[in-house]
């Protein structure tokens, strides 16, 4: 059985005061530092991603942005803690979404805050979970982008071992189609696997198209060998432990970066420690403690300092 190409699969990120949002919007799925909630209507599906361990850690916020097509920013009141979320959404260029506001939020103040950001055209809506859920399932699939069938690309966001099945990964088909018996490389490793079975929304299929959220049983690898952010692909992706970036700096960071300083760099769902080995104005070169996988023109690199008061240092396109 083939999962229909006309079926919708939309990813929605939950931000801000998201505490009770997920359980009111969908059925709870996997939960680690991010939590998945799923809502189905016929064969159409929406998956909601909540950055559960944020603001304690910055990485769940980055994962959520990279996994979703549409942002729901819940605001019960405008407070300083919201600033980091809005800043990162803006620096990552998130321009599709809505603000879900409580009754005491000053709408004019909110509009002023976002007037020069990527979120300036966000819809402002009331906290009506039933209506929000129905509106999300009716979003057009085009909001996720135009399907690219040039090769298969599936970032891994979760993985585990299932008795009698073996290694299972969860991820979303970002490009191409995935089929049973496909042979794919696990980037950034030089390791090939075969797809034994495919599930979408708890049903078994022989293949699944772009934008499907899939569970894949893999032959040829143990779950202990995997990490979040690895990519299954039959394309020619870049792999390197050294990156040169043209940074767009966070305007609220006052200190100058210095050669020899250690930070973390996030690319897609990968977060890797790194050291600045060269710097000239906005151009920096980073040495990473292990290789990362990337596709030029597709992902952004985010430089972070998890221990600092202002954790987002800057963002760069990968070109």
TrEMBL record:
The keyword Secreted does not apply. One of its GO terms (molecular function) is translation elongation factor activity. Residues 166-232 form the Translation elongation factor EFTu-like domain. This is Elongation factor Tu domain 2 protein. Keywords: Elongation factor, Protein biosynthesis. It comes from Methanothermococcus okinawensis (strain DSM 14208 / JCM 11175 / IH1). One of its GO terms (biological process) is selenocysteine incorporation. Residues 256-316 form the Initiation factor eIF2 gamma C-terminal domain.
């Amino acid at each position: 059985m083939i999962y229909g190409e006309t079926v919708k699969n939309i990813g929605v990120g939950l931000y801000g005061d998201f505490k009770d949002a997920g359980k009111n919007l969908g059925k709870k799925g996997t939960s680690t530092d991010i939590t998945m909630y799923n809502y189905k209507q016929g064969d159409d599906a929406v998956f909601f991603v909540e950055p559960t361990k944020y603001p304690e850690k910055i990485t769940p916020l980055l994962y959520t942005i990279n996994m979703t097509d549409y942002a729901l920013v819940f605001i019960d009141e405008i407070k300083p803690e919201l600033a980091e979320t809005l800043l990162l959404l803006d620096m990552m260029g998130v321009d599709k979404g809505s603000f879900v506001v409580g009754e005491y939020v000053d709408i004019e103040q909110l509009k002023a805050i976002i007037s020069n950001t990527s979120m300036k055209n966000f819809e402002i809506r009331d906290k009506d979970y039933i209506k929000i859920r129905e509106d999300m399932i009716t979003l057009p699939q085009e909001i996720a982008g135009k399907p690219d069938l040039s090769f298969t690309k599936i970032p891994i966001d979760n993985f585990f071992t299932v008795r009698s099945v073996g290694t299972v990964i969860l991820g979303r088909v970002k490009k191409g189609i995935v089929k049973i018996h496909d042979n794919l490389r696990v980037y950034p490793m030089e390791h090939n696997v075969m797809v034994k079975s495919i599930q979408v929304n708890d049903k078994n299929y022989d293949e699944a198209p772009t934008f499907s959220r899939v569970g894949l049983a893999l032959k040829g690898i143990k779950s202990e060998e995997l990490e979040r952010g690895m990519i299954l692909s039959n394309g020619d992706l870049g792999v390197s432990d050294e990156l040169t970036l043209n940074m767009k700096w966070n305007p609220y960071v006052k200190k100058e970066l210095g050669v020899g300083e250690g930070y973390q760099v996030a690319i897609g769902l990968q977060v890797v420690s790194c050291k600045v080995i060269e710097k000239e104005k906005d151009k920096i070169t980073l040495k990473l403690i292990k290789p990362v996988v990337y596709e030029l023109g597709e992902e952004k690199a985010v430089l972070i300092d998890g221990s600092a008061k202002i954790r987002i240092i800057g963002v760069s396109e990968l070109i």
